[in-house]
Amino acid sequence: GAVVSQHPSWVICKSGTSVKIECRSLDFQATTMFWYRQFPKQSLMLMATSNEGSKATYEQGVEKDKFLINHASLTLSTLTVTSAHPEDSSFYICSARASGEGRNQPQHFGDGTRLSIL
Amino acid sequence: AQKITQTQPGMFVQEKEAVTLDCTYDTSDPSYGLFWYKQPSSGEMIFLIYQGSYDQQNATEGRYSLNFQKARKSANLVISASQLGDSAMYFCAMREGRDTGRRALTFGSGTRLQVQP
Fold first, then answer.
1. Which of A96, B66, B67, B80 is 20 to 30 A from A89, comparing alpha carbons?
2. On the CB side of B110, how many CA atoms lie within 13 Å of its CA?
3. Contact assignment for A43 to B110 by CB distance below 8 Å
4. Does A97 sit within 8 Å of B101, measured CB to CB?
5. How many Cβ pairs closer than 8 A exist between chain A and B?
6. Helix (H, G, I), strand (E, B) or coil at A62
7. Strand A90-96 vs strand A113-117: parallel, antiparallel, or unpaired?
8. Omega into A106 within 30° of 0, i.e. cis?
9. Which chain A residues are Cβ-neighbours of B107 within 8 angstroms?
10. Tell me, what DSSP letter sits at residue B5?
11. Each residue's pLDDT expressed in tens, for chain A with a length of 118 residues
């Protein structure tokens, strides 16, 4: 089945550091990828939709200058948390659908990245 | 208004018994898809089952079945013969509109299922 690889799995860093998270579709091409954020014991909230070759679409309340998204190829999207602070600590998870997949095919999720800012 | 509502924060079930996890949704779009995902403590999202708005029959996947009641806008997940490994968070999610591969999912708040031996 389709595989989405997300890296790194864990990040612990100091306040003020910028952190880059990669999301790769390993065996399919994805013109669109999605970035979600999940606080402990809460649901997944969509942050932004990443479109290959164009600007990302951010959800209301998500700072685009804080969370930089780049989707430079059909298999890679990156999320950079700039000048991270403790309140940015969360679980970040990406997902993608293969172009042309049948309607009953799910979004394929990466394994997520746990970000802890000290 | 909540698009996806899961009213059960937590559920307990005895091993080998069946359990139903509730999900109601709200949309005015006639075309939509409903998904259930399992999230163990390790965090990954595991796809379980899908139901399309135009599907005539309830979806089934092994021990998982979806009780789809379109008029009531509910899509409850039924897990039969519960196993200890079923203990996890379960999320109901919806994709609104035609499936173009470019639409994100909206998730419910989740239900934590604990299977007891």
1. A96
2. 20
3. yes
4. yes
5. 60
6. coil
7. antiparallel
8. no
9. 43-45
10. E
11. 678 999 999 999 999 999 999 999 998 888 889 999 999 989 999 999 998 888 899 999 999 999 999 998 889 999 999 999 999 999 999 999 876 666 667 889 999 999 999 9
